[in-house]
Design goal:
CATH architecture of the domain at 65-360 and 433-641: Up-down Bundle
CATH class of the domain at 65-360 and 433-641: Mainly Alpha
CATH superfamily of the domain at 65-360 and 433-641: Amino acid/polyamine transporter I
Helix content: 55-70%
Shape: globular
Distance between the termini: 45 Å
Number of helices: 29
CATH topology of the domain at 65-360 and 433-641: Amino acid/polyamine transporter I
Strand order of the largest sheet: 1-8
């Protein structure tokens, strides 16, 4: 140590030695906060090495703010925005559904999204490291989050595989799902019966794409076409994430922006189609009475919850690569509203196209029923007097048919049912609810067959689905790889490749002929309840265990301003209450709804609800239990000291920041942190709320701020330290009340 250093000067003087915190920190080797001991001092004149903290802790960082925003947008905006949100709008009151959705977005969506962004940015760790840091007893939150990511990633990439298959099939004219195939038996040519009973697009989906079985119990073997598509999907995902954000960040420039180009193209094209306005008007016509139904609010809360990707770990992982002073509040609001606007845009596109399809199907219905009426007229079943004189069967309009239908129904009241006439109402066609794969691979696909240059639009649509899915898969994979790479020193590229290979082989479950039913099972049970529990524990660990006031102070230190006080009450009371109600409603819904799936019955050429067999039912509940099992296991293991709390995995940047701040303290006012005057005296604890200087200027010292010294009991005021004092083990400090 240099002779002119403060410590050396005091050792050579006769005055009482009063070491400063900065001097003590210079002697500390911050290797393991849990298992190491703090030793200060030694023989006089003995040179003690100082800690050399690197300027960069080695953690990757985003190349630009735009790249980061696009990554968050790409993760949160996914397939659900295109095929789930429009269905919920249609089902739950049209424009009236937007009211509860927007309210819940403000009450639970933005606050919880902001919370995840903030903790990831502050701790600079993935989901496991973040929750080990904030509350080690609830460290299982990060593991459960990782497991849910694994379950979702397995079946989500199967959907990307389906999209890849349709994308490849779109490069031909006419589209292969535009007409039913012809079966030839010698000189006799007949339409495929299964296709004739359903439709060309439905037949192509269930028979030529999935080749699905009639029950989940009947495996049917691997579907070779889907297996190859799944392999291609995993190769694409692996290449996108193999180098972490260095590779995925560049992919996001395209995968996040291209879907918006396609949506705007489809919107412009859709508005030019006949009947598109009918679809949009039907969509946004509010049914206000629906707003009073609790189920509408529950489904709106669930959609808000999953639309932003809360609890998956991807949000935390992406934000952990940010600078510590990044304005994550702005990011939370921006991404949330982009997500909401995207859902509205997708809904406009979907209903513009479905309005066009409804008009085509309605006109087809009118033609078919007009032929029936002509047959009845020719066979004298109906009198020509029943037909209004202005009706022209060669140019029959929907209004003319409606008038004729009403007259016949009134006159033939007793025998009307035997005629088998349909009302052919446009409203009925628009009310046919479709979602998920039924919307993307059947309804929307059928509508595109009527577009001019239909292959071009089909290529664009399925390429958009691939990019939407890829953006979400990148976030999901980052939610898996980042926590593991933070916790264990493994080779990034090798670990990523191994993950993709294992996931591909596990994903073979979903590319059997019965694989579609397992996709439904995993979608219903692997994420819903476990993820809701994960998020409420995240909320409670920050708001009630760590403390909302402390968290608000940390945010002020990070952002340079204090967030609006409304967040205090949202995090502490409103969001937990809403999540508890959501969990209760989800459990009740699961209890009263019979677990099952929609099976495609080949003989009937229609879907039929089937209950899960006992083994499949066991598998459903096993998915929930396995996803939530880390929560109690980690809690019990750390309660009885059977597991390390992960404190030895703290970020180097924290130790760097801590040393810089306390060095500034010494330079400004060394007397504020003076230890006991006598070696035998224990130094008094620094009171909370004490003023101190940090790199950003004068601040209030909060003894419970989000720092390693508090969360892990390594505060230097908690140990009696002197050159002659023996080593004192470090113990955990109990978090103070928020009151």
């Amino acid at each position: 140590m240099p002779k002119n250093s403060k410590v050396t000067q005091r050792e050579q003087s006769n005055e009482h030695v009063t070491e400063s915190v900065a001097d003590l920190l210079a002697h500390e080797e911050p290797l393991d906060y849990k298992n190491s001991s703090l030793t200060v001092g030694g023989a006089a004149g003995k040179k003690i090495p100082q800690i050399e903290v690197p300027e960069n802790d080695g953690r990757p960082a985003w190349n630009s703010k735009l790249q980061y925003i696009l990554a968050q947008v790409g993760f949160s905006v996914g397939l659900g925005n295109v095929w789930r949100f429009p269905y919920l709008c249609q089902k739950n009151g049209g424009g009236a559904y937007l009211v509860p959705y927007f309210i819940l977005l403000l009450l639970i969506g933005i606050p919880l999204f902001f919370l995840e962004l903030a903790v990831g940015q502050k701790v600079r760790r993935g989901s496991i490291g973040v929750w080990n840091y904030i509350c080690p007893s609830l460290g299982g939150i990060g593991v459960s989050s990782l497991m849910v990511c694994g379950f979702v990633g397995l079946y989500y990439n199967v959907i990307i595989g389906w999209s890849i298959f349709y994308f490849v099939q779109s490069f031909q004219y006419p589209l292969p799902w535009s007409e039913c195939p012809i079966r030839r038996n010698g000189t006799l040519a007949i339409v495929e019966p299964e296709c004739e009973k359903s439709s060309a697009t439905t037949y192509f989906w269930y028979r030529q794409t999935l080749n699905t079985t009639s029950t989940i119990a009947e495996s049917g073997g691997l579907n070779v076409k889907m297996t190859v598509s799944l392999l291609v999907a995993w190769i694409i995902v692996c290449l996108a994430v193999i180098r972490g954000i260095a590779s995925s960040g560049k992919v996001m420039y395209f995968s996040s922006l291209f879907p918006y180009v396609v949506l705007f193209c489809f919107l412009v094209r859709g508005l030019m189609l006949k009947g598109s306005v009918d679809g949009i008007a039907h969509m946004f016509t509010p049914k206000l009475e629906k707003m009073l139904e609790p189920k509408v609010w529950r489904e709106a809360a669930t959609q808000v919850f999953f639309a932003l990707g809360l609890g998956f770990g991807g949000v935390i992982a992406f934000s952990s690569y940010n600078k510590i002073d990044n304005n994550c509040h702005f990011d939370a609001v921006l991404v949330s509203f982009i997500n909401f606007i995207t859902s509205i845009l997708a809904t406009l596109v979907v209903f513009a196209v479905l309005g066009f399809k409804a008009n085509i199907m309605n006109e087809k219905c009118v033609v078919e029923n007009a032929e029936k009426i002509l047959g009845y007229l020719n066979s004298s079943v109906l009198s020509h007097d029943l037909i209004p004189p202005h009706v022209n069967f060669s140019h029959l309009t929907t209004s003319d048919y409606a008038e004729m239908y009403g007259v016949i129904k009134t006159v033939k009241e007793d025998g009307f049912a035997q005629l088998g006439l349909d009302p052919c109402l446009l409203e009925d066609e628009l009310n046919k609810s479709v979602q998920g794969t039924g919307l993307a691979f059947i309804a929307f696909t059928e509508a595109m067959t009527h577009f001019p240059a239909s292959p071009f639009w089909s290529v664009m649509f399925f390429f958009m689905l691939i990019n939407l899915g890829l953006g979400s898969m990148i976030g999901t994979m980052t939610g898996i790889t980042t926590p593991v790479l933070d916790t264990y020193k493994v080779h990034k590229e090798l670990f990523t490749v191994c993950c993709c290979i294992v996931a591909f082989f596990l994903g073979l479950l979903f590319v059997q002929r019965s694989g579609n039913y397992f996709v439904t099972m995993f979608d219903d049970y692997s994420a819903g309840l476990p993820l809701t529990i994960v998020v409420i524990l995240e909320n409670l660990s920050v708001a009630w265990v760590y403390g909302t006031k402390r968290f608000m102070q940390d945010l002020e230190d990070m952002l340079g301003f204090r967030p609006c006080i409304i967040y205090f009450y949202l995090w502490k009371y409103v969001s937990p209450l809403c999540l508890i109600v959501l969990i209760s409603a989800t459990v009740i819904e699961m209890a009263i709804s019979p677990p099952g799936y929609n099976a495609w019955i080949q003989e009937l050429a229609e879907e039929r609800f089937e209950s899960y067999p006992p083994w499949a039912l066991t598998m459903c509940f096993a998915l929930i239990i396995v996803a939530m099992l880390p929560l109690p296991i980690v809690y019990i293991a750390r309660r009885f000291n059977l597991m390390s709390d992960g404190s030895n995995k703290l970020s180097v940047s924290y130790r760097k920041t801590m040393m810089k701040d306390i060095s500034n303290l010494e330079e400004q006012d060394e007397s504020r942190f003076i230890l006991g005057a006598k070696p035998s005296e224990a130094p008094p604890s620094a009171p909370a709320g004490r003023p101190c200087l940090t790199a950003g200027g004068a601040k209030t010292l909060d003894a419970n701020s989000l720092s390693p010294s508090i969360c892990y009991g390594t505060s230097y005021q908690n140990a009696a330290i002197s050159p002659t004092t023996p080593t004192t083990p470090i113990t955990h400090a109990t978090p103070e009340s928020d009151s």
